[in-house]
Amino acid sequence: MRTIKSLIFLIIFAVSSLSSFANKELEGNVLYRKGDYKAAIEAYKLLLKDGQESSEIHYNLGNCYYKTNDLSNCILQYERALKLSPKDEDIQFNLKLANLKVVDKIQTVDKIFFKRWLETLSRLFAIDTAATYTILFMWLAAIILALYIAAGSSLLKRIFFYSGLTLLLLSITMLILTNYRNNDLTSTSSGIIFSPTVYIKSAPDDKSTDLFILHEGTKVQILDAVGSWKKIRLMNNNEGWIKSETLEVI
What we know:
By secondary structure, the protein is of the alpha+beta class.
């Protein structure tokens, strides 16, 4: 009886929590439509603080920051939203729109072709879908292997062999894509500049040489960290050191 009561309590608690989170998100949406962007920001931030992370919340938060002309936070939230939903055209469009306001116009160096393929293919599926396909293909490959062993004729053996080999290759491919996508989601190797202007140094030392200047909203790749400094790389492959407090990790 105690177990049943505990289960009922957990169900009621879960339902009430979901209802509360839904109300908070609805509250943020209502505030946004009313034009009260600062209050909407607080509503969305509270959702994230409670662990309710989603591309929709980051996207809505980015829209609020765009309306309040907070460029760095706007781009940061759009980047986080895109990380969770890389095929979302609305997020892509708004991010491009926000990036037009960034002072630094950095020419992108093309990635190595196989990295471009991996990135494109890994974003075709949600990570849960890719993992499901991986398991499915592995099970089918195992079944085909059993049929191959049990087959009597050489023709059937050839059919089962090549079918099993194809499924095995597919499962390996999906496993690689799942791992790549998971690394992309959990990566902390990119950040957004938050200072209006910041000098990039040649070494993790205030007295080192100034290499170039960056401005708020610029996206950088984080390569290393030493004390309160981070080594960064731009999309044009320029590198340097920056104080950690001047950027926010995506």
